């Protein structure tokens, strides 16, 4: 059984999508060992408690990032977490946190990275007038919205879209993409070659062997 740790700051809709996918058997051989929030008032932490999951609030207010992250890392290790999933966690991770879980922290971002990293990605897409947006599940590294891409889903930008409408359609795809990406990573059936996530298949065997 693989143990997941969820970090969230708000409503936790992607956390709920992950939990629901587990209930449906779409993420096999895994459980959610701990849900951590940096905000006591986060709706997502209340939802986790309602599901009977272990939860922990580790406040960010008035604390240095490294100090808070060290406490989170200790909590994740205490619960045997092997894969960390950021689900609307609105705080940058310290280098020490990332080093504690190398290639084992996932995040989802509401754009087709590397386009429109950071906050307000949907507003950025509308301001640029792009015809296609979407979402990206990626490994977390020390740069913002920069790590190796695991999976992307495209969403058309429709004429007359505002930020709310586009965000809602992207979120629907996030709820499908994140569980699928988690399943891919937990399978171990891949390699990271340069900046590419390469699924393990016969046509990729030589490329994966080179990466070892």
Task: Explain what this protein looks like in three dimensions.
The protein is an alpha/beta fold and 212 residues long. The protein has a single domain, classed as Formyl transferase, N-terminal domain (Rossmann fold). It contains 7 helices and 9 strands. It has helices at residues 13-23, 43-50, 65-78, 95-100, 121-128, 163-187, 205-211; strands spanning 2-8, 30-37, 55-57, 83-86, 105-109, 132-139, 149-156, 190-193, 196-199. It has a 7-stranded mixed sheet with strand order 3-2-1-4-5-6-7, sandwiched between helices. Strand 2, helix 2 and strand 3 form a beta-alpha-beta unit. The protein is globular.
Quick summary of this structure?
This protein is an alpha/beta fold.
């Amino acid at each position: 059984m693989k143990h997941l740790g969820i970090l969230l700051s708000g409503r936790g809709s992607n956390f709920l999508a992950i939990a629901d996918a587990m209930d449906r058997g779409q993420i096999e051989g895994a459980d959610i060992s701990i849900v951590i929030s940096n905000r006591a008032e986060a709706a997502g932490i209340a939802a986790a408690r309602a599901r009977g999951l272990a939860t922990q609030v580790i406040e960010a207010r008035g604390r240095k990032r490294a100090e808070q992250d060290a406490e989170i890392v200790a909590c994740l290790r205490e619960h045997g977490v092997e894969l960390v999933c950021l689900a609307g966690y609105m705080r940058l991770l310290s280098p020490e946190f990332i080093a504690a879980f190398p290639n084992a922290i996932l995040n989802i971002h509401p754009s087709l990275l590397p386009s429109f990293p950071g906050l307000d990605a949907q507003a950025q897409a509308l301001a640029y007038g792009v015809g296609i947006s979407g979402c990206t599940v990626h490994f977390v590294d020390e740069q913002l919205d920069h790590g190796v891409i695991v999976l992307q889903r495209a969403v058309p930008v429709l004429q007359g879209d505002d930020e709310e409408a586009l965000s809602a359609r992207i979120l629907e795809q996030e709820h499908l993409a994140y569980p699928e990406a988690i399943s891919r990573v937990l399978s171990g059936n891949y390699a990271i070659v340069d900046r590419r996530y390469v699924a393990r298949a016969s046509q990729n065997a030589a490329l994966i062997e080179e990466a070892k």
